[in-house]
Amino acid sequence: MIDQSTVGHAQTFTTVDLPAVLADYHRPHPGVKIEFVEDISPLVLVMQNLLRGGLDMAFIALDDRPLDHPCEVLTSYHEPLVWASR
């Protein structure tokens, strides 16, 4: 069972109500401690932190370049947003 999740995002990421998203996750998983990390770093540094295990998941905005990272990517059908996790 997961007892802690570390969630990150770049500081410029603003199109999602993150407190509401985290609350929606926490309601069915009340025993999971959520650590939220806001990073002022560029996307590449957030991705590096995700890939080396510093983050469990991240909210990021991507352009149309293909990813060369081994991530599972979930996208919204109406937003150019991505949920990537290791």
TrEMBL record:
Q: Which Gene3D superfamilies match?
A: Periplasmic binding protein-like II
Q: List residues of the LysR substrate-binding domain.
A: 6-84
What name does this protein carry? LysR substrate-binding domain-containing protein
**Lineage, opening ranks:** Bacteria, Bacillati, Actinomycetota, Actinomycetes, Mycobacteriales
